[in-house]
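Hi team, as promised in this morning's meeting, here are the two structures we talked about. I've kept the exact order from the run log so nobody has to guess. The first one is mostly here for context; it's the second one we should focus on when we meet again. Sequence first, then the predicted structure tokens.
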Amino acid sequence: MRFPERLQELRKKRGMSQESLAQELGVSRQAVSKWESGQSVPETEKLIALGDFFEVSLDDLVRGDESRRSGQTAEGRNERYACRHYEYRSERELLGIPLVHVNLGRGKIYRAKGIVAVGNVAVGLVSVGGVAAGLISLGGVALGLLAFAGFSVGLLLAVGGIAAGAVAVGGLAAGILSIGGLAVGKYAVGGCAVASDIAVGGYAKGRVAVGNMAEGARTVILRQAGRGGFRSPEAVKLIREEYPRLWGPLLRLFTALLG
């Protein structure tokens, strides 16, 4: 197999466009196009860079004979390489940013940046990855307006094992309104709830504290109702008295929990 065909084969198995390969090598798309059409040959430095990028020897890259010496086909071996790393970048762009960029692999950190981004590290309006940042983010660690992750920080909403945000929901939650096993915030609901204003939980501590155990300026001790629920009209009345201007959705939340 000649070098132009071999280069084209390796590129396509990675799911890459000529433009994305050119960006990896620091050359123009036209240069890659000429290499694949046989109009020109890369400099030695670029051949080495190509071999390193595709994880093949120079012999295999130029002559395609390494697989025959090892008793394997080039196609079979490069399928393994494709499993190690996959990248897709949409040709359509918005303000110079691809609409979709997927860049995943093992052995190194692959970064994706797009309107929709999926990668080991992803940045986009919608981002999914081990580490994700964007308007809507999902991943192991996520930062965004809406964040969903093992560890999440959301400007508006955060959901995760550990969550911090304006509204935080998680095993450990911290926010203006926090809901979780351990909840800390201005308003807190959880197994252990600590709040500056209203706390509701198994253990509650706040200015108004409602719980099986409660500490605060005004407290209500809950008594368990049927089917594991809690009902305390007294607590709802107390919240209305102490916070007559409480935001409607919050008041409805506490009323639903306790009313």
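And here is the second protein, the one for discussion:
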Amino acid sequence: MVDGRRTIARAAGVISAATFLSRILGFIRDMVVAKAFGAGMATDSFFVAFRLPNMLRELLGEGALSAAFVPVFAERLRRGGNEAWELARKTLTVLGLLLIAVSLLGVLLAPALVRILAPGFSTVPEKLTLTIRLTRWIFPYIFCVGIGALFMGILNALGHFATPALSPVMLNLAMIASVLFLASRLDEPIFALAYGVLLGGILQLCIQVPIAARKGLPFRPTLDFEDPSLLRIGRLMIPGTLGLAITQINVFIGTFLASFLDQGSISYLYYAFRLIQFPIGLFGVALATALLPTLSSQASVRSLEAVKGTLMFSMRFAFFLTLPAMLGLIVFRVPIIFLLFERGEFTRAETLATAEILLFYSLGLMFYVLNRVVAPVYYAFQDTKTPVLIGAGAVLSNIVFSLLLMPTLGARGLALATSLSSLVNFFWLVRRLKSKLGPLGWGGQVTPFVKTSLAALTILLLSLLVPAEILLVEGFQGTLRVGGVLAATAILFLLAAWLMRCEELNFLKEALVGRGPQPNGGKANMSDIFG
């Protein structure tokens, strides 16, 4: 079990590092695009054209396809490699045909799609025409991202995590390069971004195909719509996609309701949630991706105690990683937002308004991450319906909380409603697990949770010693001050965790450096993770 935990920790570390790099490049991409194109008709057209393919990328890339494919593929792997590769080949063939059809339909139906997504563009014919042309160029990206998501599932099931996790980096690099080196040479510079998206999709495939081939995936097409395992993947994927879309649905609800509030409310919600997405990606998505192959293998042999042990360890590890991040965002929310956004038209008033919303979003950060960790248990047992039903209940609770809180708290109430709905989601996900796993054994988790909580108190102590006012300094000096305080916060937390002998600290070391006692006679298995 300890070796399994180390494997999860190392894999999560690899995925977190890749996610961190991708998110940083994403911020750089946004800055490059803003500098090159500003905010006008061209960028409006591009963002609308990119909305559907990008939404599919987020759903598939963060696990919808893997949640359906990996458990079934792991079951076939246990029976024998040939059966597993046969399933992979059939899935690749059917998925490829479906994605080609979707891409062609998107190209043909681009005028209708644009009118649905942006009905206001119909009053500006030039803008509508540009958006339709961009949509037709970008839509084939769906083929690349869909096939790439399948390769990610295959490689993750085989213990290889680094290359699939790096694939979003390729998209950001391609888009940045297209703006820097191609835009100035085009009659319509905005099309450089569309070409960059397509190039990024191709590169996402190119870096995964050689690894998949080396692992043994045969690329001979095999068409078989009647394979029971293939049909099961399809049945699992539809509710799985809906389940993973819950967060986006909640954000959409907040945006919709915020449109009835004061000007700027939607922007405050957007900027605050962008910051929350950072730890969700680093911890929640990374752990969920690393967990699924291990849980699927354990569930395939009905090893319930092993599944429980893996889940409880993962929740402890997620708590250990997320609690200091949550407290850091709460305590230093104003300096962080000041450093990132306060310049130009973004004034101190906007900084303070966004910081208030970040506070209420941060209260739910723990549950956003834990929901990502718990959901793979259901997927490992090939149950994607339960998370969807629970998620639907969470969406309804979000609507109710929003309507109750919005009149008094405004946009802050919408952020708080999202946090409360995440708590509701977590409560029911854990409660329903009892029917699958029996008692989870919460009693044995009290000591680790208490140790982590006490260690995290150092963050509150530091906030009392460092007034926020001295951090609100512009330029490089401000960056040094905020960065120094955040680094000191992390060091103090880790020192306190070390003094309290928090077990999770050892696994954090595994995640960061991939060293420590290994199975197989002391030989590390990092080559399986990195390929």
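Starting points for discussion:
The chain is about 80% helix and 0% strand.
Residues 2-37 form the longest helix (36 residues).
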